[in-house]
Design brief:
Blueprint: E1 4-12, E2 33-38, E3 53-62, E4 65-79, E5 85-86, E6 97-105, E7 119-122, E8 131-138, E9 148-155, E10 158-165, E11 171-190, E12 207-221, E13 229-230, E14 236-237, E15 249-251, E16 268-277, E17 283-285, E18 304-309, E19 323-331, E20 352-355
Parallel strand pairs: 2-9, 10-19
Antiparallel strand pairs: 1-19, 1-20, 3-4, 3-6, 4-5, 6-8, 7-11, 8-9, 10-14, 10-15, 11-12, 11-13, 11-16, 16-17, 16-18
Length: 357
Amino acid sequence: MLVSGLAVIALGSCSSSEDIPSPSISKTDDAIRFAASTDYTRVSDYTTNNLTSFNVYAYTQTNGTGNMTLFMNNVTVTKTGTNVWTYSPVEYWPANETVNFYAFAPAEWIGSSTPLDAISYDAYPGDQDVIYAVSGPLVGHSDMANAQVLMNFRHALAKVTVKLSSTNPELRVQVSNVIIYNVDTKGNFHFPSGSTSDAASKDNIGTWTDQNSPWMYPLHMSQTTSEVINLTTTPTDLSDSSTGMGGDRYMLPQALPWLNNGDANDMYIGVMCSIYDVTTGTKLWPNANTPAENLVPGSTFGDGLLKFPLSTSKVKDWQPGVHYTYSLVINSNDDMGQIEFGTPTVDTFLDVTTIYD
């Protein structure tokens, strides 16, 4: 491979949340009322501010023991213009029983399943954030005004953003296509047993199993020369609505194998591009010496293919509720040598940075 590349992977996960305000209600009946919050992230995600409805299943247990009995069956809870969460018909706290609440959005996510089942899900094409919440076991407080069930939502998927840039002023890097390869698109989600209103732990974070059906996620596809991206020192964010196919990708949490340098089931970001000398206009890459694995037969623009693995020595899988940003810097070294990957480093708090050079 005759081009060097540097990629920085930053991972972020916001744990702060903000409760949606609800007005005081003076009545002291034992109606079940809801309030909701979710981790605050980017505009395309579900957030405390833009969440307007969610669906709820609830189950009762006698004194919190024994089998759970269906109590609320896929009820839609909606936020009014005055920030009050309403649903119909109103339910009341049952006597001598505890209630477990399971909530989720969007409404179509669960389908014909219930939160007590393993929920099959197809994440492709990756344009939908999905969230879930668990609260309980709870009992009613008829002597308290406006007692509410707080649903603190967590993100069920991992979010992936890809950015591209070039910092060598002597080169012109033209990118035609960017595709993430071999990502599993289907799997089974399992609601946690513990309340998501508590601090995050293994008991209150949903899990995924049986991930399968690997496929490709196109992030940018050039049909004409006007759609080709010319890289600059300012990173091009492929999640920007005006660039590429627009939007972040929400993907199943999963392992990120890289065992065969991009062959077989390896997972990687493939960048189809050509590199030119700015002064002479000479095409530097791909060229007659480019290895076959970096050639793209039939490419409209005569591009080669660079492969950036999704995993590193520190990061072997995607986790739910974590935002992974891959910043790919495509440059050339002095002798146009092969791509080499440097030792990755990982910060231990909130952001994780991995460097390839």
